[in-house]
């Protein structure tokens, strides 16, 4: 893929700089020559942009985010195609840092988030996921690096990013049987089994539970570099005590953890709203049913 910095895409967006890249896409900072605002543009890498399955996935990402306007999902201005047929998404430009960077910096100093800060940061994310699930959208890759903390100078708040693995319930699956979609420490047990037909919104419930666990404890539930060990633990392992890692938390947080990270989906909280209501009741701050 050639470097488009300096070029004008779609006769409107001047590419200013590359700001990030994933497995299939690259994100650039750009100037909208009509509004003069800075925007983010996501392009598929090289030949990936001409791959039918990846293009469909890309379109679903844009569709998912566009359907979630009014929530904390990243705002999509438009989607288009270049002359070569490859797709692009124009989104709001974010200034700040990923939750992953924020947590890593704190953990290096032995720090953990205060309970009220955990609630404040993740409450909008829970609201957004609840709205997504009502529309049949499952994120499937919920993790701290897909949650963005916006600088106060640019409005503050948080954004839920990267719906690149999003599953629209009822649509044809784009993940082949036997493939595992997601990020290891945050993957629900049923996702490890590699059958995308069995997955529903409860995989996001599990992932949000892992994120809360990490925010409050300073670590994921099962720290390991071994994929095999993590896979085995996710499907059979005993869930750890969160209170043992942070004794100032109420004893009831362990019952919440067991249910949030339950191996069987039917034994888990059945919705993000239910999970969040339980957490708010235990940690005691703010509204319990904001959606």
Task: Give a topology summary.
Blueprint: E1 8-9, E2 13-21, E3 25-32, E4 38-44, H1 52-67, E5 76-81, E6 87-92, E7 96-98, H2 99-108, H3 115-134, E8 137-138, E9 147-150, E10 158-160, E11 167-168, H4 202-217, H5 227-236, H6 242-245, H7 253-260, H8 272-283
Antiparallel strand pairs: 1-2, 2-3, 3-4, 4-6, 5-6, 7-9, 8-11, 9-10
Span from first to last CA?
43 Å
Query: Any idea what the radius of gyration is?
Result: 19 Å
- How would the global form be characterised? globular
Taking pLDDT < 50 over at least 5 consecutive residues as the criterion, the unreliable ranges are: 169-180, 286-291
How many extended strands?
11
- Which bin fits the share of residues in helices? 25-40%
Name the helix and strand elements from N-terminus to C-terminus, one letter apiece: EEEEHEEEHHEEEEHHHHH
Share of β-strand residues: 15-25%
Please list the strands of the largest sheet in the order they lie side by side. 1-2-3-4-6-5
The largest pleated sheet is described as: 6 strands, antiparallel
- SS element count, helices: 8
Structural class: alpha+beta
């Amino acid at each position: 893929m050639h470097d488009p910095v300096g070029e004008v895409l779609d006769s409107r967006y001047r590419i200013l700089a590359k700001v990030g890249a994933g497995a299939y896409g690259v994100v650039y900072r750009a100037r909208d020559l009509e509004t003069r605002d800075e925007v983010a543009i996501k392009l598929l890498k090289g030949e990936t942009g001409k791959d039918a399955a990846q293009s469909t996935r890309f379109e679903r990402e844009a569709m998912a985010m566009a359907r979630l306007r009014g929530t904390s999902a990243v705002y999509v201005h438009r989607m288009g195609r270049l002359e070569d047929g490859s797709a692009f998404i124009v989104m709001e430009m974010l200034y700040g840092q990923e939750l992953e960077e924020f947590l890593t910096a704190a953990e290096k100093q032995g720090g953990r988030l205060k309970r009220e800060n955990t609630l404040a940061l993740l409450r909008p994310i829970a609201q957004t996921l609840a709205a997504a699930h009502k529309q049949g959208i499952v994120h499937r890759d919920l993790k701290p690096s897909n949650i963005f903390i916006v600088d106060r100078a640019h409005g503050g708040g948080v954004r839920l990013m990267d719906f690149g693995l999003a599953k629209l319930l009822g649509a044809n699956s784009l993940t082949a049987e036997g493939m595992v979609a997601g990020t290891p420490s945050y993957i629900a047990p049923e996702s490890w089994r590699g059958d995308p037909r069995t997955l529903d919104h409860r995989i996001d419930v599990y992932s949000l539970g892992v994120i809360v666990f990490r925010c409050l404890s300073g670590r994921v539930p099962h720290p390991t570099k071994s994929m095999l060990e993590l896979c085995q633990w996710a499907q059979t392992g005993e869930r750890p005590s969160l209170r043992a890692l942070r004794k100032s938390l109420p004893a009831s947080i362990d019952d919440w953890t067991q249910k949030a990270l339950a191996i069987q989906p039917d034994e888990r909280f059945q919705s993000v709203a239910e999970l969040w209501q339980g957490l708010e009741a235990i940690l005691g701050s703010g509204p319990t049913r904001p959606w």
